[in-house]
Amino acid sequence: MTTLTQAAPLTATRPAGFDGALRSEWTKLRTVRSTVWSLLAMAAISIGLMSLFAWLLVARRWDRLEPGERAALMHNPLEIILSRPEFFSQLVVAVLGVMVVSAEYTTGMIRSTLQSQPRRLTIFGAKVVVFAAVMLVVGEAIAFAAFFVGRQIIAKRLTVNLGDPGVTRAVIGLGLFLAVLGLFSLAFGAIVRHTAGAITTVIGLNLIISNLTGALPDSWGQHVNAYMPVNAGVLILQPAQQPGDVLSPWQGFAVFGGWTVLLLVIAAVTFQRRDA
Amino acid sequence: MIEAVGLTKRFGDRLAVDRLSFTVQPGQVTGFLGPNGAGKSTTMRMILGLDRPTAGTVTIDGRPFAQLKRPMREVGALLDAKAIHGGRSAYNHLLCLAQTNNLPRRRVGEVLEMVGLTQVARKRAKGFSLGMGQRLGIAAALLGDPRILMFDEPVNGLDPEGILWIRNLMRGLAAQGRTVFVSSHLMSEMENTADHLLVIGRGRLIADCSVQEFIDRNSELAVRVRTPESGRLAELVAGAGARTVPDGEGVLLVTGLALERIGDLAFDNGIRLHELAPLQASLEQVFMEMTKDSVEYHAAVPGTGAEA
Asked: What's the ipTM?
């Protein structure tokens, strides 16, 4: 067995800062299988499942659709390519985002992490930046791939081009939306610290509570519903503001971003303060 | 040097650490002893800034751990072998830690070599035995070649060879002038490893002294006497003010009377002695005696002895 004395001595090293934390978080993200599997699942849903549903819709069900729905789809074909698959892919993003922080707590890794860098905001900031960057790159890649694949599949009945008003913005918007949703989930992972609990919170909030607010009386329902995080965020996937929408696409995205920033601030404060 | 002043941690209405003040000096192994639940781990967690003290301060060479510019170069710690994401390989686990402190990548291979995990470097930590996990934790502690090392119950789960290895490692690190702070609830372990002792019970400091001092100060010297006439001798030494405890057929344990006086008494009264031997109380016995009032959880069955 060798002993410590036989290793080459470490020479002076640079202070531990944000750059080191970024590299470390990138290593962490890429060296667990769940990241790769989750990103593949995102791609499979957004491109594969979308293609299947789109084909079923235009090739099998088209003639049986209500005239109103058919008109709506002709007005906004991106509903098929971007919006409907998003309903499913958001589940994967929620899981992945939550796990960026919660997995450190459930595995105990957080104690190693904070021993190597006790400045907690440095760690938290690095997690946010690295995960946002990865989600943005992967999200945009998936968004454009989905658009070009989906557009071919529905071409028999519907046409949509990047040059159409609002379409490029909506496609780019999907990548932005997925990145922000990832951070929204990451914040919950840091606040709740239990993977299952945080995932349930995010999904419950976005899929159930958000929709229940629509049942509030009078214009209350409409307004509260519109300002719920994901309800507002998904507006960016529409080429234009629909009649009856309270918020425009960019306004909706700004509301979602605002919620996310608020949650990240709460998450950073709790991450800083609580015992690890 | 680690310095704690009035360090206190309260969890709800339970006082885990109660106004601890101590220093841990470089160049020696300082044992941190106490029964389970005495507050050893909580104290170590506060040193590393993982837990926030309710009151008091603890510093590394005068500064809180969280203010150190190169934390891994200053302090390396093994708190528990489970502070690992099991899905990551040993190599990648160490790599992501090394990167936070801008340590060279080659260092990862070096510490894996030191702890003997080179063969399984690319295996996921999930499949590691407790002993291998412990070695990986030690590798992480050694990564930054730190001046201060802390180990919380490091021999847990190690086989005898592993125990010997870590004992030598700790002695070697201290001999290089480093500060080594190691906790244990096993006295026998400390007796073999530590130079200095901090003993705590129920969060309070009970003793802060060298190992030898600790034994001398806290153990009454006992003498073991074997004689065919144990009944007569017991009466004689009792008359001289000593206490005796029978310890098997024809054997007495005598306390409160010097060994020479016992021998003289026997000689003067014509009692044959087959054995007259000083008993050095082991650290274990002394510790059990000292901390019996401060054991957090007593075993349900009386008389089972060492529950700590």
From this structure: 0.90
